Please model this.
Amino acid sequence: MYSVLIVDDELAIREGLAALLDWESLGFQVIDTAANAIEARHKYGLYSPDLMIIDIRMPGRDGLELIQELRQGDPELHIIILSGYADFSYAKRAMAFGIDNYLLKPVDEEELQRYLSVLYAELESRAAYRKQHAAVKVWSREMLVQSLLLESGQQSPAAPETAVHEAGLHWDSYQVVLIRLLLQDNADNGPSTAVKARLAASFEEQDWGIVFSLDSYLGVLLQPSFQKELVHKLMVRNIREAAAAQGLECIIAAGDMVDTLEELPASRYSALARIKEHFFYDEPGMIGPDSLKVKKGLPVKPEEAEPRLEAVLERLYFAMDTGSAGVLSSLVREAGEWMSAACYSEMAVKSRYVRMVTFLSNKLSLQYKEPGLQHSRMDEQIQQIYKYTSLPRLQRYVASLLEQYAAGIAHDDMEVLMKRILDLIHRHYSENLKLDTLADVFTYSSAYLGKLFRNSTGLPFNSYLDRVRMEKAKELLGQGCKVHQAASGAGFSDVDYFREKFKRLEGISPSDYRRKNS
Model:
């Protein structure tokens, strides 16, 4: 819809013209009227109309003076002159200012309608030309940015200074932002094209930056005014909304800020490095120069990390088995820290967490009839693990899963808790049970938990564990097992220690016990 401003000192003429035609059916809208040249000049600045209909005779400054002033600043403005006088000299002077038409009062409705139809076609043609011209200009700027971003070994001959100048790229600073769209498997480029088109419309039309595509990424070369932290949130929201409109998620990373066009590749490389390492950042918006990676700690070899991970897995099981859900998050994070220190890849980390979740779920399912582990959703939950794009958020998800799994067997009462610990000892006597491990799981000091245990059983933890193991060893010996088999089956790794302990507690050697009872 094209806008029209009517200028006449007579109210009846202004209102009559506004009501004379069905303007909207012709593609126009009367946005306002003005009673004199001064008011008209003010409203021209306010509305920037496409067409002005101006009375040639008005008190004070007449229409010709107004037209002359407007034409100096806007040679493309369309103007129709109205006059109650068939004065050829006025018409002649008006023609010199490039008016579109000259109408006598009272205005002929059909004549004005014919003119508006011709004008509408002309305005539409001009709009199409401008759109095409703007598209070519954007394409040229994108190509220029792409050439500036290429490595020196790949770079085409340096862009001429005239091209840089015409593209308006003489900025105080530059920053490259890369966008990785998380496309579905076997997806074509349709969604990427649609996202790029939407970003180009929102960014470039408002001079926020130049949108481009390079390799498998979309990107934006940010204008200096849009490199500020406060407006980054607006940019991120804009990008995510464009991706979401195509049903996609995305990862956004900003490169380092540079001062010259020659340094653009460096900004691109730093953005690329961050986007490739996105999984190890805890950043919900855009990963940038100030974003912090997950702490890796001292580097370790993968073969050194695996025993540590197995120990964490054991503690996770004990924590879930005894209802100590409060430590699950910290243990899940500890596992991530060991994997990060060993430089596990994103996929290796996810696979390891999947193994941990399935192992714990299966082991608890074997132990409890109704542990509330929701096996019907296991496949869905495992798929979700692989979808996470951030290690900290993945860890929070895994911890929440384990907390759900443990919920069906968790207890808070201290008396019941001690019974659970005793039950755990009787079920896992052959494993590497230690008071320190249980204290860590229950978030007590080992001294305090040891005191609770002694008050409850009358024996220190290790003495109680030894008695349980001895009873199992006696059972195995009675079944005819050899001494080393009974020791191993009962959880004693040192046969000599077992013999000594057995004789001290039972008053007889294991061999003699076996002969008497088998």
